[in-house]
Amino acid sequence: MARSWGIKNLYFYLVCLVTLFLFVGGAISAINNAAQLILPDRPNISLTESYFREYREHGAETAFDPPPLEELEKIRAEQEREFRHFQGWARRSLLNSVALMIIAAPFYFYHWKQVKPGAGKGGSDNAG
Questions:
Q1: Number of structural domains in the chain
Q2: How crowded is the C-beta side of 105, counted as CA atoms within 13 Å?
Q3: Of 20, 17, 27, 12, which Cα lies nearest the Cα of 104?
Q4: What would the pLDDT profile of 65-124 be if each residue is shown by its tens digit?
């Protein structure tokens, strides 16, 4: 059975293509954001660099002057703030991706139903 490529069917196919791309992009983004929530990225910085920034060398060995406890607590609090901010961003991004998929899916299914053969008025009749 030959399909007619009228304006109506081209529109339905185009909407299906666009919504399919939106759904796939949302799914990829959702998987990525879920992975970021489950396995968060931690900076790959050694403990020495993060906590003992100031040091001096004596002969062949390096001697560290540890910062005061208050400064270490400030550094740790800042790292926790950044981590919570990142986690919040990842959650919002995951919700945005899921929302994109939820919105795109009904549009895709409705328009795909319209272009299937024998779907009724919208799919196989381009005369009107």
A1: 1
A2: 8
A3: 20
A4: 777 888 888 888 888 888 888 888 889 999 999 999 999 999 999 998 988 765 555 444
H-only helix segments in the chain: 7-38, 47-51, 69-115, 121-124
User: Among 40-44, 53-57, 75-79, which stretch is predicted with the lowest mean pLDDT?
Assistant: 53-57
Distance CA 109, CA 12 (A): 11
- Residue in this structure with the two tokens 């196989």, named with its chain if needed: 124
Tell me if 73 is assigned to some domain: yes
Question: Does residue 124 contact residue 118 with C-beta atoms inside 8 Å?
Answer: yes
Alpha-carbon span 14 to 125, nearest angstrom: 17
What residue numbers bound the domain in which 33 lies?
7-41+68-124
**How many angstroms separate the CA atoms of 19 and 17, rounded?**
6
CA 110 to chain centre: 26
pTM for this model (two decimals) = 0.63
In a domain, 114, yes or no: yes
